[in-house]
Amino acid sequence: MVQKDCIFCKIANRELNTEFIAEGEDYVSFKDISPQAPVHALVIPKRHYSSLNEVDDMELLGRLMKGAQKTAEKLGTGDNYRVVINTGEGAGQSVFHIHVHVLGGRVMQWPPG
Ligand code: AMP
Description:
Elements: H1 7-12, E1 22-23, E2 27-31, E3 39-45, H2 58-74, E4 81-84, E5 100-104
Antiparallel strand pairs: 1-2, 2-3, 3-5, 4-5
Bound molecules: adenosine monophosphate.
Adenosine monophosphate binds near residues 34, 42 and 93.
């Protein structure tokens, strides 16, 4: 369930004193350390899955989306925000514990780079 040396497992287990924005039974959210927008947070499951491709619990994905809604609301994005799940190195994934980016507070461009 917990992967040794996974930074997001450590955050979820409260080993790093990270301040949580929202928390549910099986997820937490917190601010991204290198924000790409005025609002940039991450929602992660407490259980380790390396990427979206590993998740077989579709209800968990729904709860992560609920966590994204709550996180956006708490950080005051209003109705305008973006959620992103980078999956695989080629798509920009750099931390291999699935996470949902919540970005807001500015106008977003499309398509993303
Ligand atoms: P991705 O590139 O989609 O895998 O996103 C990983 C995100 O995790 C990046 O936006 C990083 O800035 C962020 N990140 C990495 N380490 C930490 C950390 N210790 N606390 C908060 N955010 C982090």
